[in-house]
Specification:
- This protein is 23% helix and 40% strand.
- It has 187 residues and is α+β, with helices and mostly antiparallel strands.
- The strands form two sheets. Strands 2-6-5-4-7 form a five-stranded antiparallel β-sheet. It has a four-stranded antiparallel β-sheet with strand order 3-1-8-9.
- A hairpin with a 2-residue loop joins strand 8 and strand 9 (171-181).
- The model has no long low-confidence stretch (mean pLDDT 92).
Length: 187
């Protein structure tokens, strides 16, 4: 099983991202586009695990305290690692102060199960597209520069979710395995 933990998005944001992708898609010659219905804010990528480990992961996630909902605003467009070498086109997430501690607590609870912590700092974002080559998409880079401060909507997350990821020829598909409501205790 290939697993990750994430926050879901509302239909307002998905619709705005659907419209954005429709405008940008013709400009990205080498881009492989994400489907808005599958977009999520990843809190922790777990990776491949054996089925017997699923119970322990579910139990660990059930102990993650979270004192309040997470408020998010989807805003701006950019590239990882940067505009000169664009490999991933993303939308930024401005979130309430409790988002990063929530992600850190999820990592802390999963580490005893042999799931390593991330080496990189937590950077909440939505992946819009992956570029196969960093050249040839100059029009996409120029269009994204004009969207650096564009607002795509807001959401309030009252729970986080454990997802299973399936790779198919049509792209990645996700199945929600379990949801964990917020406000169970103080962090």
């Amino acid at each position: 099983m290939r697993l990750f933990v994430a926050l879901d998005l509302n239909e307002e944001i998905r619709g705005a991202l659907r419209d954005l992708i429709a405008v940008l898609k013709p400009l990205g010659a080498t881009a492989r586009w994400s489907r808005p219905e599958g977009m999520h804010v990843t809190l922790k990528f777990i990776g491949h695990v054996d089925s017997p480990k699923l119970g322990a992961i579910r139990a660990a996630l059930a102990t993650v305290p979270s004192s309040a909902s997470v408020q998010m605003r989807v805003r701006g467009v950019g590239f990882f690692p940067d505009e000169r070498r664009p490999r991933v086109l993303w939308c930024g997430i401005d979130a309430s102060a409790n988002l990063a501690p929530l992600a850190a607590e999820i990592e802390r609870r999963l580490e005893p199960l042999g799931i390593p912590r991330e080496d990189r700092e937590f950077t909440p974002h939505l992946t819009l597209a992956r570029l196969k080559e960093s050249r040839g998409d100059d029009r996409l880079v120029r269009a994204a520069q004009e969207l650096k401060s564009r607002d795509f909507g807001s959401a309030l997350a009252d729970e986080f979710h454990l997802f299973e990821s399936f790779t198919k020829p049509s792209g990645a598909e996700y199945k929600k395995i379990e949801s964990y409501p917020f406000a169970k205790g103080a962090m």
